[in-house]
Amino acid sequence: MALTDFLSQYQHAVDKHGALSGSKLAAEKAVERSLVQLGKKINYGERPVEKEWDALIILDACRADLFAEFAPQHPVYEAFETTTSIYSCASTSSEWFRKAFGSASDTELSKIHYLSANLFSNCVDPNRFHEMTELWRFVAEDKKHCDPAEVTAEALRANHESDAERLVIHYIPPHAPFLHCTGKYDLESPVWGGDSHQVWLGLQSGEFDRAEVWNDYGQNLLTVLDEVDTLLTHLSGTIAITADHANGLGELGVYGHPGYSPVPAVKRVPWATAVGQGQPYSVSDFDALMDRSEVSNTEEQLEALGYL
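Now predict its structure.
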């Protein structure tokens, strides 16, 4: 974070909640910076490419405890054969792509068709994969991110057309912004751009209620589990569901998902498995297929995810 960004956040916290709030924010940011430096020297966590699966579903920024609380509320939960948690090898998406796949062998990657709604897929060489379909490149100019239904439709098209041995489907939810309450967490006087970061900054500075944020975070997970349900219906083989990283909710002063954070809360993610039912389908049955003419709105997507 740039010094000017921090000073703006500090002043906002002081103006809104008093000097004590500003001091708390300053202390938390100092701890966060120290932890990031530590995280660059030590590393732990698993790379999913080394685990057994035929299809891997990535639910971006999903905490393990969020999944444990909300997933049982969705009918798809009954299809899971195992539900546990693992530590991710990273605490933010760009770091995860590099660590999870950058050091993988060409043989491993040549088996994978990766469909990504997350634009940090550009951190790895797409030519090393059997195929890399960067769905974020086809987001319409009036949108800020891939609709989950579009990702599902494209995944089923790939499953029908690709001869890759393994399929990875990377959704954006439950990563903010929360789809069911657009605009709810926009700060009145934003001091750090991006819809996503406004959620965590607002929580950190006392603008938002923790229980309410948690519930909306969980509702965003339930939204994408509708898509997981569809995939389990039509894909075959062993299907794993996990996340690239989680989100801090104040553990050791960390909010959101700063890169290279060693804080367990930011790296503990779900790992659930199921066997796909393999029910037949026609690709034309899914009307959410994307227009593959490339559209460049990268800046808008980065802002929506909280990185600008």
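Residues 210-234 form the longest helix (25 residues).
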